[in-house]
Amino acid sequence: xxxxxxxxxxxxxxxxxxxxxxxxxxxxxxxxxxxxxxxxxxxxxxxxxxxxxxxxxxxxxxxxxxxxxxxxxxxxxxxxxxxxxxxxxxxxxxxxxxxxxxxxxxxxxxxxxxxxxxxxxxxxxx
Length: 126
Description:
This protein is mainly β. Helices cover 0% and strands 43% of the residues. It has a single domain, classed as CATH 2.40.50.140.
């Protein structure tokens, strides 16, 4: 397996769509741990590029329980990597980050109607 760094600055808008939950071993129902012994939590993150209406949801593994993250919240991922894997003839890509946090101030969360350009031919209402 090879870790491929992901440039999160090029991903566009990131939003938590599935709140953090511990990743469980399906056989034992125990919380999985990483190589350092940290419990692994997963968060569903919607990724939407700025120029398109298309959005994809990725599941991101995080070491330790993330705090302050809720569904519908804009988030930032730190040290995001894509990991290509193959098990018993199946192939896929998983994602890991060293941490997840609420998006910091300074980046616009959403455009407001007053900040959108008006279509040509429309004037301000009196």
